[in-house]
């Protein structure tokens, strides 16, 4: 069982800068400088990673350290001598990395000379923040599940980070203006509908400010993101009950003592994806028309042709529109999730939820297996033969990209903490909510295609019933409390039947997930 991370509460306020054409060009120059600094650091990090790869002493220590971890998987049972041995190996590897210059502060020191030429565009702390970002990427590659330290193009940079109010962009709440690198930018006042909330949020102490830009059909719009200390102002009145949530890939099922919810995550995502696909299609046509020599007769790219790509004004305009569409799509998903979180918070404050590993669900399967089901395949001569087809290796990457369930859980954790509640994560393998039957006190596996179950002679929706079991957890968070389930089951079924009836009446359906 795991809970939410404890950290100092902070909140942000995003305000648009009222920039002229000259001021917009000035900020763009800063983003150009940041992209150069980032790529210089990436080149440096890659060189150091290659040196580590071919350093015999480091690789020997790493081999010993890896072998030790495999041998002692249960870290709590290490003796003092084993703990000392492990620490010795770790310290020796750390010493080699630091002597080589592979550390966060070494990255910040390395980029100082390069950043001097941009002293009128970026502050020292903004350069340090970018060095920290590259270091985190290299650290993730070396110690985590990172695959590479990537170079980035200028148009991929959206934020110039800050670290304190003494350096970088500074915001004045009295004059509603921002000062950065000797230039003062006017900040647009919030709309009347959000004015009270924004002013209340800005009453806290400012920690630092970020510079942000967003793509729109008419070009870049620039913003100041003010990061403030303390919790954000509250917009709604939270309930005081508990709620069990069964998170899916595309849906969320939630059950409290008085209500049930079965919701599709980001239900209108399809129309955003269609616009993106259409724009990509026309971009490809434009690119092929401008670069006929870069393609083979069969339509594939000619890799032997190393001429520079030519991009027409139409292509660049559509490329900017594509970035705009991706931003709008992302904003829609976040707004949709926030609405659902607020809906749940009005009913409950403490949430119990299964701990889902969405990263694993997104990966393709490594095993090549044949299906148990027999399929008929026609031969060229017209005859039919029966075979066991190979199972698909694809998992849920596309659905996770469209629905972003991990973002929903993160927003739920943040808002529950803001309203004095909590989110308790329950281990899926131990709890077995999708398999348990409280009427028989047994666990039975069921295929994912089976969206309903028969429990004590009553038909229940699979996800809602799992959420019901999670709500009625015992004190150890490892098993449902059967007595609680028995006493509240009838009320749950009545509320579930009422919800499904209303959804069918309003033509709300999702056959593959809801079962109707």
Quick synopsis:
The chain has helices spanning 21-53, 56-71, 80-100, 104-110, 112-115, 124-143, 192-201, 269-290, 313-345, 358-362, 397-403, 405-418, 428-431, 462-471, 482-505, 511-514, and strands spanning 10-18, 159-160, 170-172, 177-180, 183-187, 206-216, 219-229, 241-247, 251-256, 260-264, 348-355, 375-378, 384-387, 422-427, 436-437, 442-443, 452-455, 458-461.
Low-confidence stretches: 1-6
Task: State the secondary-structure class.
Answer: alpha+beta
Binned strand content: 15-25%
Approximately how much helix is present in the residues? Answer: 40-55%
Main pleated sheet: 7 strands, antiparallel
Principal-axes geometry comes out as: globular
Averaging pLDDT over every residue, what do you get?
Answer: 91
Strand order of the largest sheet: 2-6-7-1-5-4-3
Rg over C-alpha atoms, rounded to the nearest angstrom:
28 Å
Instruction: Count every beta strand, where a strand is a DSSP E run of 2 or more residues.
Output: 18
